[in-house]
Amino acid sequence: MKGILSVLSHYDFSIHCIIPIQDDVYRVETSRGVYCLKCANKGEHKMLFIYSILKHLEEQGFTKVSFPVPAKDGSPLVHHDHKIYFMTHWISGIPCDFKREDHLTAAAETLAEFHQHAKGAKLLEGAKARAMYRKWPHVLQKRTEDLQKFKSLTQKKSSLTPFEKKYLAIADQVIAQGGKACATLQSSEYRKIAKKAEKEQSFTHRDVAARNFIIEDDKKAALIDFDYARYDIRAADVVRLLERSLRDQHWHEEKGDLILKSYQKVYPLEKEQYQVMLAFLQFPQKIWRISERYFEGKVSWQDEGFLKKLSSALRKMSYQEKFCHSFENKYCQARKGG
To answer: Which InterPro entries match (predicted)?
Structure first.
C-alpha cells in the first residue's frame, strides 16, 4: 500500500480510505469525492488514448462514463516504480444483469448514446489505438483459414485427444459457417460503412459485457472500463452486446429485438449496417477462440476444460444459427430494396 500512497500523492486531495477492488484496481475515498485508481497494463500509448476519448466524451456532454482525473501537474498518467497509473471518477450503482430486461434496455440505450458521441476525439500526444475500419473482411477470412488449419493439424495426428476428436467431428460445419460469414460480409456495404466510420474517426468500447455497465440510482446504465477501446464501426459493438447478453439465454429472439429496438430509439442504425452485423453473428467466433487457444497453446487449461468449453459452445451454436436466420429475415431481407 506504500506504493499506492506514493501514487496518490500526485493528486490534489486528502485520502480518507483506500479499498482494493481487484488486482491493481482501488476505490479511493477522498476529501473531494470517490475515485478509481487503476494500474495500467495496456502500455502508455493505449492509456493516453483511453484518457483522450474519456475526456472527449466529457466535453461532448456524455455523462454515463467515468471521467478521467489529471494529476496535480495536469498529467493524464502517473508513473511510479516502472508502472503506469490512471485515475477516474468512481461510478456508484449496482451491477448490470443482462437477464433483467430493464437492465438490458438501459445498457442498449447507453451504448447508442455513447456511439453518438464516440467520434472525432482529439488525441493527446503519444496516444494510439488499433484501427479496425477496413480490416474485418481479412480478419474473418483469416479466422476461417485457422479453422481449416486446425482440422488439417488434427488429421495428421495418429492419436487424438477427446478435444481433437470432437473438433474433427464438427470441423466441416464450423469451416462452412466461417465461409458463409465471409460471403455475407463480402456482399454487404461494409466498405461504404467503414469509409464513413474512418472519416468520422469513430471509436468503440469493444468489451460491452454486463460487468462493464453500472446501473445508477436513476436506473440508467453507465459504461466503464475502456481498456479494449479502439477505432471501429459501431455495428461491431452492437453485435457484441447481442452476443454477450444472448449467448447464455439460448439466443432469445425477443430479447434480441428488445436490444435493437432500445438502441435504435436513441441512435438508429443505417439499413446497410444489418448485413454487416449478420456476418459478424454468423461467424463461429466462440469455437474459433477456444480452438485457437487449444491448438496454438495460448492458455494452460487442462484438456478437460477445453473439451467442456467446446461442448458448451457447440450447444449454443445451434441457437445462434436459428437467431441468425430470424435476424436475416427481419432486418436484412426487408431492407435490401431500401
So the answer is: Aminoglycoside_PTrfase, CotS-like, Kinase-like_dom_sf, Spore_coat_CotS, Tyr_kinase_AS
